[in-house]
Known about the structure:
Layout: H1 2-19, H2 23-51, H3 59-67, H4 70-75, H5 85-100, E1 114-116, H6 126-135, H7 145-153, H8 156-167, H9 176-194, H10 200-217, E2 220-224, H11 225-237, E3 242-246, H12 253-263, E4 270-274, H13 283-289, E5 292-295, H14 302-321, E6 326-327, H15 345-356, E7 364-372, H16 381-385, H17 395-400, E8 411-416, E9 420-421, H18 422-428, H19 443-463, E10 466-467, H20 469-479, E11 484-485, H21 486-502, E12 506-507, H22 512-522, E13 527-530, E14 537-540, H23 544-554, H24 558-572, H25 576-582, E15 584-585, H26 586-600, H27 612-624, E16 628-631, E17 634-637, H28 642-668, H29 678-685
Helix pairs in contact: 1-2, 6-10, 7-9, 8-9, 8-14, 9-14, 15-19, 20-21, 20-22, 20-23, 20-28, 24-26, 24-28
Amino acid sequence: MAEMMQVLPTKAYSKVAYTLGNNTMRKNADKLNKIMVRTKTISALFKHFATTEFIYETKSVDEMISFCTPEEHKDFLLDIAEVDWKKYFQYFAWGLHYHILGEKVPHPTNDSDSMDLLASLKNKTYFHDMKWALSHGMEFKTRSKKEMKAFIMSSPNLRLLIKDLAQNRKNKTISEEKYTQQLLWKASQISRNLISSYSMPVIKLTAYITNILLRNMYEKIVVDEKALARLMQLELDSKGPIVLLPSHRSFVDFVLLSYIMFSYKMKVPHVGAYDEFLRMAFFPRLMRACGAFFMRKPVADKTEEEIYNVILTEYLQKLMLEDSWLQIFLEGSRSRYGKSLSPNSNLLSIVTDLYFDKKVRDVQLVPVTLNYDRVVEGDTFPLELLGEEKLKLKLTKLLISYKQLSKNFGKVYVRFADPVSLKEYSNKVSIPNQVALKPFESKDDRRQLVNGLGHDLIRVINDNLIIMPTSIVASIILMNRKGLIEETLIKKVEWLIPEILKRGGKVTTEFVLVTVKQAISHLDNLLEKKRDIFHPSYTAKHDFKNIILLSYYRNMLGHLFFNEALIACSLVAFGYELAWKDGVPVERLWESTSYLQKLIGKEWFTWKTLDQENFNNLLSSMLQRETLIQDGDKIKVAKKGEELIKFLCSLLWPFIESYWVTSVFLFALKGREHATPYEKFTSEVN
């Protein structure tokens, strides 16, 4: 009967379409007929399972269980209650895809050390959340805000600086005593704005609220429990102060690590935030009580800046000496480009000086990579990059945007790298001419070491990046601006994932179809979708803001392909005749690649810069993979490698074009009599 209810309307529609209808109706009739054929095929395939009752008896297994020793129980999973069914079906589904359907899907990693932090908290009541908050977190008491301020104001370094500034003041009309009082008042204001007021009761209350919010926002927060166990042991071994150095992509970063530490009953860190949060009502007090301290951006007043730097140094080093954990963002501010920013060497210097001044025996630096499917405030990044004023933080805006936090922002993967011992790092580092650095004796050597350390820590953060589905799909969409059907998109994602893995990248273990569906759901407002029963197609919306945000997600995988992309763009720049037909001499290609690297080489952080040796090694690798072919002493694009070359070029062309536009505009300024204000310059370039 059910089959007749489907067949009769289809046949009736087909009859009308071919008798009285137009071409559109006939096409729709053909599609409906195809659907009916597929429906019948699927029904026939599963008829046996849908009409047959299967009964499984476990009497023999139950008898075996009764005879097994405790050791045998561990070796043989005979009790079905002990089987990890989620993992079983994950591997079973992977086997069907890989062995039966012949699909090249990534193997589901047996990552038993990683855990979804939200899994045990789903569908819980508010009373359960309250009980959870009261029973978690590690009790830790710090100096009160008043005590810490008194310590800083009486510190010899600050007193000495203020005395020196007063004696060497430029305005001699003010007495030294009065000027000293002015400087002390200024120091008091800076200290008051900077210092946190760490309070465990407030932290527990905030953890309760945060738990509810994150559970509503994210499907999963996956953490590496083994890495957290290493951190716990590091604390017990007392190998020096611990400093967490997370990547910075979102405002969520400020609470995420604290939430994880609280959940695992570890010490909640003091978190470095910038003073833009101080403009909000009430919120700064809550943040301070949760361990936040408020730094500020550099100011023009050199005297005030010197005082601030001494106060910040005294405060952070005192926290570290008193066993507080620090969380500072090595990049300084949120990346609005999707790629890592240059490290903030000033903050890192404050941390490392504690060791180089021999106040502690070591410092443990822990790079942390936060990977988001979708960034909460991502929609604001294109506006800021296009020259619009940065959105000011206000409590009213936060309350208005509360409803936005109920959206699905996908998954978060948090990866902790192995701690970097500053003592071990400084012992093995040398400058390029193999002369050992002496950071304990030379300030210049110390500065050079800290600069290199910052870049190495950023590279470690990049090494732990997980290329999320949104990054993969955004890269494919931007490579095919005219759009592509879903079937083609899936095939291209299947092609790109192995390329990422070959270069040491990491991806989530979902199947390709799941990856594509998830990414499209998160990028929904950035894509134009053409509805079609059999071939839905996708293209990027032709608006600069949408393109920029898609580029944000694409840039997350740029570091894996950067050096290859330099070679690809340099080769293609010679034109079709040379790059595809005649070939380019290796020496000419090296010259072009070397120039391009000097121009845009600081856009991404890689472990290897392309010197002549690395260039030759990478070129050999691209030849072996048949991305390129060599004809005598000339290099050209291989037929097999065209897709990869196109992808590599799509990663760098936007940056190259941006440099070109800016350079052309700078040349145009040569004829102007008066200087152009910075704001006007950026708006004209945009």
